[in-house]
Design brief:
Blueprint lengths: L1 E3 L3 E6 L2 E6 L10 H16 L5 E6 L4 E3 L4 H6 L3 H9 L3 H7 L4 E5 L2 E3 L1 H7 L3 E5 L3 E3 L13 H9 L1 H10 L2 E3 H7 L4 E3 L4 H13 L3 H15 L3 H15 E4 L2 E5 L5
Parallel strand pairs: 3-4, 4-6, 5-7, 6-8, 7-9, 8-11
Antiparallel strand pairs: 1-2, 2-3, 9-10, 12-13
The structure holds coenzyme A.
Length: 254
């Protein structure tokens, strides 16, 4: 079944949701329509019990997403108002509320909000031609799709500062060496390799996957001793095994 919205496509294939940013004529620039349609789509992914995992990708040959739609910034009464309307719907919070595994499949330009969106996913697989960048400061803005926080949490403060302060573009190879992406694959295999990766992830116990995601994210906000304690408590209370088989998961992270 394919539901075609103007700016975001949602396709469900067995237990996997394919979510495609779909404004290829403007390199999938993120505008208000896309915000609204992505919000609705992510709610569907979150709430559909048949969906066990999600791939986020971009339509067309040239880009995953070339960032926020710069023409909307020009048409809004002020940059502050342009930003404000984006906050009316917390798409970024919605990404983080999805307990199912999400993989971003990245090709071509992955700039600004595009990269920030990818950083809200659990894994990032990029084609060898991908070009990355967080150019907001160069444009007189700061990242506002979580980038100031997710970049440093993903690759550390020193690398995050360098990328955010310079706004320079960088290659898939550099993104990989910094730990910003998990894998590089040839362009022709991007979607098939992403699907294979997600399928292998989904072979595991769903509750285990969701719990480990939650514990990692929750632990990042805690001092190490408390984070280790969290892991201990969740591991002890959640897993009841018999003969090595997972029987029940009793206590997801509160
Ligand atoms: N917002 C709105 N439109 C955008 C866009 C964006 N972020 N990025 C690209 N587009 C549009 C272009 O205006 C162009 O539209 P047109 O055909 O109607 O003129 C179309 O997408 C193709 O882009 P174009 O600039 O012609 O391609 P290019 O190969 O010469 O350059 C980029 C590609 C990505 C280097 C260039 O488009 C660019 O710098 N985009 C802005 C990136 C950016 O700063 N994003 C915001 C981060 S906060």
């Amino acid at each position: 079944m394919m539901t075609a919205a103007a700016t975001v496509l949602y396709q469900k294939e067995s237990s996997i949701a394919w979510v495609t940013l779909n404004r290829p004529q403007v390199l999938n620039a993120y505008n208000l329509d896309m915000r609204d349609e992505l919000y609705t789509t992510l709610e569907a992914v979150r709430d559909d019990p048949e969906v066990r995992g999600m791939v986020l990708c971009g339509a067309g040959d040239r880009a995953f997403c070339a960032g926020a739609d710069l023409t909307e910034f020009g048409s809004a009464p002020s940059q502050a108002i342009a930003r404000q309307v984006r906050w009316e719907r917390d798409v970024w919070g919605l990404f983080l509320s999805i307990t199912k595994p999400i993989i971003a499949a990245l090709h071509g330009y992955v700039l600004g909000s595009g990269l920030e969106m990818a950083l809200l996913c659990d894994m990032r697989i990029a084609s060898d031609d991908a070009v990355f960048g967080l150019p907001e400061t160069v444009l007189g803005m700061i990242p506002a799709a979580g980038g100031t926080q997710t970049t440093s949490r993903t690759i550390g403060v020193a690398s995050a500062l360098e990328l955010l302060l310079t706004g320079r573009r960088f290659s898939a190879q550099e993104a990989f060496s910094k730990g910003l992406i998990n894998r590089i694959v040839p362009r022709a295999q991007l979607l098939s390799e992403t699907l294979a990766t997600l399928e292998s992830v989904l072979a595991a116990n769903q509750q285990a996957l969701e719990t480990v995601k939650a514990v990692i994210h929750r632990g990042l906000d805690l001092p190490l001793d408390k984070a280790l304690n969290l892991e201990n408590r969740v591991a002890a209370s959640s897993l009841v095994s018999q003969g090595g088989n997972v029987q029940t998961w009793q206590s997801p992270v509160q």
